[in-house]
Structure formats: C-alpha cells, structure tokens
Amino acid sequence: MDVPASPPARTAILLPGTGSDEVFVTAAFERPLAEHGIRLIAPPPEPGADLVHAASRALDVAAGEAGEPVLVGGVSLGAHVAASWALRNQRHCAGLLAALPAWNGAADAAPAALAARSSASLVRGHGLAGALDIATADVAPWLAAELTRAWHRAGPGLADGLDAAASHPAPELTALATLDVPAGIAACLDDDVHPADVAYAWADALPVAAVRETSLAAIGADPARLGHAAVSAYLAVAG
User: Fold this and answer.
1) Span of 3-12, 47-56, 193-202 with lowest mean pLDDT
2) Distance in angstroms (rounded) separating the CA atoms of residues 197 and 203
3) In whole angstroms, how far apart are CA 131 and each of 102, 136, 157, 233?
4) With bands split at pLDDT 50, 70 and 90, how would you rate the model's confidence at 3?
5) Residues 6+ apart with CB under 8 A from 67
6) Distances, alpha carbon 166 to alpha carbons 98, 99, 119, 193, 198, in Å
7) Helix (H) or strand (E) holding 200
8) Domains observed in the chain
9) Which residue, 16, 32, 191, 229, shows the most beta carbons closer than 10 Å to its own?
10) Is the pTM higher than 0.90?
11) Strand, helix or coil at 215?
C-alpha cells in the first residue's frame, strides 16, 4: 500500500518498557537518533496503576510542545502505547519506532505479560529487595543492573505499574494495518520474553515497515544497538 510521504522528523518521543525507565531509553536511542539530526524526548514513567495512561498523556504533552509531526515509539510496552497514540494522531505522527513489541491485542498469556505479573507478585510477597534478588538471580549482569536501578526508582508504585502494563492491550494487527506512517521495528532473536515473531507480525500488518534484528548480548555490550536497529529499519522505509 502506498502511503503519503511523511515530513522529515526532527523530534522523537520514546517511552520505556514495563519496569524500565527513561535512562535506558536514552542510552538506547539518543545516539542513533542524533546521528540523523533527530532529538530525543524520553518522558520518565509514572509508576502506579495509572502507568499506561500517564505514558499516553506524556506523548500528548511532548508532541504538542514539538509543534510539528514527531516520531513516536518505545520499548515493549512503550511501543504498544506509542502505536496506539499514533493510530489516534496520524496527522501529528511522522513515524513509529517499535523496539521489542511484546504482543498484539489482549496480552493474555504473552511471555512479557506473564513476567510482569510474576514480578508484581514477587514485589508484593518479598518486598523490593527480595524481589530483586529473585528476579536478577539468573539474568545477565547488565540486565540485573537495569532492573535494580529502574525498580528502585519506581518505588511503591512498582507492583501496580507492572500489573497495569500486563493487562493493557496492544493494538490489534487489523488496527496496525491502518497506520499510514513508516515504521521501524527492532527484534531480538534471543529474547524469549519479546518473541521476534511478534515484531515480524507487526511488520507484516503495518503498511510500510521494516524489521532489523539484534540480540540481548549486543544490547548488553552497547544499549545503542537496540536504537540503531529500530532507527535503521525506519530509515529503510521512510523514503
């Protein structure tokens, strides 16, 4: 399907994933975007039961302040929220950067939703320190460090935010098929929580989209590898 050419974007507004924060978003995307003259706005999450709606409101505010069509996107849940925003605001959207989308439609038994619910239960049952001990016991050191920082920053709203994320639907594939903006999608082939099949399903549904692959190991060495994957996919179809 042919789509209208989008004006060049000078601003990208990107949201973090569940249990993550704007620190990781900045590490992943600031440099890849700056290489193409695009400034990054990374709103911090507002942990708690209103996490998802607060993220959508942050997009509204940042896009309004930009005063021109913007790139929107994020990581995992952030990609879901941004895609939903883009569907509602296509005239103000220059494109979508979706890193590691985790499901489409209802979350149901998606691995990322199950992980978020499990993490919420750990926090409520063991406290933050105990939950972190369990959650980081068998993960790579870089991921353990990311979780430790972000979960501590989330404070008492962490568990409610995790549950809110796990219950929030992503756009249906039929809805994504109506999103007439170029989309760049990043997938990790070694990430069981964010299956690459979901990224490719999004790309197949979207009218103009490309996928670029990376790995958790690569992101651990340099978080910008995730941003480079999404940005290069976007540029490949943006024209």
Assistant:
1) 3-12
2) 10
3) 23, 8, 14, 36
4) very low
5) none
6) 18, 17, 10, 13, 16
7) helix 196-205
8) 11-105+171-238 (3.40.50.1820), 111-163 (no CATH)
9) 229
10) yes
11) coil
Are 94 and 71 contacting, i.e. CB atoms less than 8 angstroms apart? yes
Q: What pLDDT does 223 receive?
A: 98
Instruction: Render 97-136 in DSSP notation, one character per residue.
Output: EEES---SS--TT-HHHHHHHHHHHHHHHHHHHHHHHHHT
pLDDT tens-digit readout, 24-38: 999 999 999 999 999
What is the 3-state composition of the chain as percent helix, strand, coil, each rounded to the nearest 5? 55, 15, 30
- The amino acid at 88: R
Cα 108 from Cα 116, distance rounded (Å): 12
Q: Residue 202: what residue type?
A: W
Distance of CA 132 to the CA centre of its chain: 22
Both tokens assigned to 179? 């999103």
pLDDT of 189 higher than 60: yes
